[in-house]
Amino acid sequence: MPHAAAGIYTYAEFGLTVLGFLPIMAVSRYRHRADPTQRLPGRWMRRLGRTAGRLTPLWHFDIEGEAPADILQKPYVVIANHESQADPFLLSWLPWDMRWVAKEELFKPPLTGWAMELGGDIKLRRGHGESVRSMMRECEMALAGGIPVMLFPEGTRSKDGELLPFKDGAFQLAIKAQVPVLPVVIAGTRQMRPKHSKWFGKARACAKILPPVPTAGLADGDFAVLREQCRDAMAAALPDLRSRYGNI
């Protein structure tokens, strides 16, 4: 299928997939509205991501690395680099439940925004103190309920694929909750949907799970060391992954 035709098909397929999932997700969200983990509504959101990604001929996803043996019973703060709007579709293939943090603007468009709301994703208005505090409270409740939370510590998509400086929130959260940080590195999604692009590209992408970084015994003031330790591990893993999944 030519790329232009595949792109048009992909837009239509995404829209129809979301429309098909929304009623189911609305019922799940209502039934589990008091659950701080939003585990089952979020599971439907990841099914939506996997289904939409599976049905487009343009995208192909791989997962590498081993998930921690206890991740189905124990909460983690999961972090990943952020290259593209295709990243959530790729990360939907990770084999565990998560609550996701996403910027507030993503909840506004119809269909995709409704799906994120119904899936229990956590809103964040960047640069707004009360929104940041509310997000941290939601994350803490989710972790206390036993579910991992997912954040992009760069805070925005990288324009050129280079790893941006990490913000502090994910690491402060992990230390406060005394849960490990689980880094995941992504390569290949930038070619699928570059920042500010209105179109889709044909590509194969991969998410690689790295070893978890423990926080046991760390104090509030140690977040910068934890942050740089995680960033260094991700920066070291990215060149090999990018050499196999679309060099930048």
Automatic annotation (TrEMBL):
Biological-process GO terms, alphabetical: CDP-diacylglycerol biosynthetic process; phosphatidic acid biosynthetic process
Keywords from the UniProt entry: Acyltransferase, Lipid biosynthesis, Lipid metabolism, Membrane, Phospholipid biosynthesis, Phospholipid metabolism, Transferase, Transmembrane, Transmembrane helix
Pfam families documented for this protein: Acyltransferase
Any one cellular-component term (Gene Ontology): membrane
Gene Ontology terms, MF aspect: 1-acylglycerol-3-phosphate O-acyltransferase activity
Domain Phospholipid/glycerol acyltransferase span(s) in chain numbering: 76-189
Keyword Transmembrane helix: yes
EC number: 2.3.1.51
Pathway recorded for this protein: Lipid metabolism; Phospholipid metabolism; CDP-diacylglycerol biosynthesis; CDP-diacylglycerol from sn-glycerol 3-phosphate: step 2/3
Catalytically driven reaction(s): a 1-acyl-sn-glycero-3-phosphate + an acyl-CoA = a 1,2-diacyl-sn-glycero-3-phosphate + CoA
Class in the EC hierarchy, top level: transferase
Segments crossing the lipid bilayer: 6-27
Keyword Lipid metabolism: yes
Alphabetized CDD domains for the sequence: LPLAT_AGPAT-like (cd07989)
UniProt free text on domains: The HXXXXD motif is essential for acyltransferase activity and may constitute the binding site for the phosphate moiety of the glycerol-3-phosphate.
The family this protein is said to belong to: Belongs to the 1-acyl-sn-glycerol-3-phosphate acyltransferase family.
PANTHER family: 1-ACYL-SN-GLYCEROL-3-PHOSPHATE ACYLTRANSFERASE
Protein name: 1-acyl-sn-glycerol-3-phosphate acyltransferase
